[in-house]
Amino acid sequence: MGAGRNGGRGRAGARGGGAVEQPNLVAPADVPSLSARFWVLVVATGVLAGLAGAALMTLLYAVAHLTYSYRSGSFLAAVERAGADRRVVALAVAGVVAGAGWWLLRRWTGPGGSEVSTALWRDEGRLPLRRSLGTAVLSMVIVGMGASLGREAAPRLAGAVLASRLSDWAHLGTAHRRLLAACGAGAGMACVYNVPLGGALLTLEVMLGGLSLRLALPALAASCLATAVSWTVLPTGPTYRLPEVPLSASLLVFALVIGPFAGLVAVGWVRLIRIAHGHRPTGWGLLVAPPLVFTAVGALAVPYPQLLGNGKDIVQLTFGAQFGVATLVALFLLKPLATAGSLGSGASGGLFTPTLATGALLGSLAGQGWALAWPGPAAGFAIIGAAAVLAAAMQAPVAAVVLALELTRTLDALMVPLLFAVTGAVLLSRRLDTPSLYSVRLPAQ
């Protein structure tokens, strides 16, 4: 994408290290006109990404139900019923599966990465099929067993690699290949969270760095098709249930104040992920590190079962103000550490929901203090914090706001305070030259 040649570099700041590539802050080179054949490939990408997303989510549910012996209800409720011993054992086994699985996968598939960001920004949109699909399956298995990682990495990767393979078949040029792979990644994200517009904006703002009409139409088409296809298996409702939150002066001023603090939290979170990713083991170390780290996370889950899984239940519970201050503080500190440690051990997984959970915990914790002086709705505090941290961490304010809308479907009254908080968070994070979560995971050149 030529980000470096076009000046697309952001620095991590004087205290954060040297220069770090920030490709998603620079628009890609112009994409040639889109032919009828390319549109056929967009349709095929959307359909295949939807099928892959539905299959991976079915695998996730099956593994979670088997690991914690439940048929219905929330993942957290099942983890709590399972008991302390089972949490530790489940995470220890997940660590063995992760370590052995990725060690064998790398040994059998040979060289070649399986990171969507690296493929788009460094490798002309090319992804190895076996390595990528194997990584996606392993990622879903360990998240289903309770790993503190996001579930979106697997469908994003599956959608991108299927698009890459279609590009090989159609002999597409580099610009079209990158666009199609980005559309596949966004479509994979869209279908598992039921966020077609959010998935398209992630394609544009995060992966392609441009909002032009020529890029937007295929991104929208692929995400909408994938979401519609996934409805044959996956739920069609919102991911999070948010009570009605009326606009108030308290929320408006809170959003202005919390924005910069959310930006600081996002800066710390991104730097933590960079450190973790930079210390990922290689060779035989991959067989040892995941079992050790995952078992430690399982031990932390004895007093704090909310640490297991991607953090979806944490977000939902903050909306209902169901955590006390002590629990909020503990989870706010431990959830990022558990996720960064899991990633740093060599496991592959997403960061979307863990980031959202960190922001929701920040908003809920700050909101409880704020409400002592100026009462306001707990759900409003939490969702404002979640959107602000997400926007600054991804360096994608528009996508973050739309994702907050689609994930809850009830945020119309909160639009202005949400935008205030997101603006403050992103401005501060960029003032500190903070790259996105996706940029810091690029391999060094």
From TrEMBL:
The keyword Transmembrane applies. It is found in: Membrane. InterPro entries: Cl-channel_core, ClC, ClC-type_chloride_channel. It is a multi-pass membrane protein. Signal peptide: none annotated. It comes from Streptomyces benahoarensis. It comes from the Bacteria. Pfam families: Voltage_CLC. Keywords: Chloride, Chloride channel, Ion channel, Ion transport, Membrane, Transmembrane, Transmembrane helix, Transport. The chain crosses the membrane at residues 38-68, 88-105, 179-203, 215-234, 246-270, 282-302, 314-334, 346-366, 378-404. Its main location: membrane. This is Chloride channel protein. One of its GO terms (molecular function) is chloride channel activity. GO terms for cellular component: chloride channel complex. The keyword Aminoacyl-tRNA synthetase does not apply.
